[in-house]
Amino acid sequence: MSDLIPVEQYLHSIHNASSTIQSKLDPHPILSRPRILIICGSGLGGIADILSKDNDSDSPIVEIKYSDIPGFKTSTVPGHAGKLVFGLIGDNKVPVMCMVGRLHFYEGYTFQETTFPIRVAKDLGIGVVVVTNAAGGVNDSYKPGELMVIEDHVNFPGLAGWHPLRGPNLEEYGPRFLPLSDAYDHSLRKLFVEKAKELNVIRKIHEGTYFFAAGPTFESRAEVRAIRTLGGDAVGMSTVPEVIVARHCGMRVFALSLITNAGVGAKPPSALHPNPVALDDGMASHAEVLEAADEASKDVEKIIEATINQL
Ligand code: HPA
Fold it and tell me: Residue 263 CA: which ligand 1 atom is closest?
């Protein structure tokens, strides 16, 4: 039996979700045509705080819980709230849709389910997606608290057949065979870096390749070394399926990793030789990820705000 939802049913759910959302936005004309989707990564839900806060008729906020949208799955991960927040960003009052809490494959959802919100966003008329995530540093020069503008990715599950575009092609969204050589929009990347400079952000900004591992385990030491060999600079459990579906829909993509921990690629302590390294040296944890994200989130928020204000 196929694990895929039949196309007609899937399309119907997408359109049903988008019309439910649209009906909640229509009473607020200034929000009713969102232009940008922002996906908040682990511990980065505070990005929704950059929406104009007055919550009056000039800058309204509309919040919709995932559980109130037909067809939307709910986020089960601590640090992922599970709601859409619609509001305005910057002096230019750019109308945006924020996903506070994303859906992951490791939670048991299919890629059709985890990328469902992207196609809903497309239905709402959105043309740009800003994706953020927490990621482990694999490149030796990356330190926790630094940022990586994603310039490319390795879709490791995808190369082995677990691909978000597997199954009948959704012709009304995009082509069967999609090139990904320009997945991460060059002008958006340049704009982000320019805004970081203008804002005098001293946090180091790298540009590199995001390696998608399905999770939920953090990588073993040998896996960290393997990912390094395969060209990954940072590793994480999200983003790539969303980016692929967004590109399939013809949306422009900007994606940012916050490096929350260093992947440990050193060999474990030996049983054969005396070794001073404790076994838990550098062990990754979700608490560490959330702590690092919290620390860096203010910088991420202000650069994203300035970038989106310019779009
Ligand atoms: N590996 C995978 N995903 C992650 C990591 C990591 O080290 N840190 C934050 N998300």
Answer: 7
Cα(86)–Cα(36) distance, rounded to whole angstroms? 10
Q: What is the pLDDT of residues 134-187, one digit of tens each?
A: 999 999 999 888 999 999 999 999 999 999 999 999 999 999 999 999 999 999
How is residue 246 written in tokens? 């967004």
Active site residue 107: yes
Task: Please identify which of the residues 48, 104, 196, 293 carries the catalytic annotation.
Answer: 104
Element (H, E) at 8: helix 7-25
Nearest alpha carbon to residue 281 among 265, 295, 292, 296 = 265
Rounded to two decimals, the pTM is 0.92
Contact present, 70 and 20 (Cβ < 8 Å): yes
pLDDT tens column, 68-107: 999 998 877 766 678 999 999 988 999 999 999 889 999 9
Question: Minimal CA–CA distance to 87: which of 239, 305, 242?
Answer: 305
d(CA 244, CA 163): 9
> Which neighbouring-strand residues pair with 257?
133, 148
**Sign of the dihedral defined by the CA atoms of residues 104, 123, 164, 112, in that order:** positive
In the chain the domains, ranked by start, together with CATH numbers, are 7-308 (3.40.50.1580)
Angle between helices 7-25 and 116-123 (to 10 degrees): 60
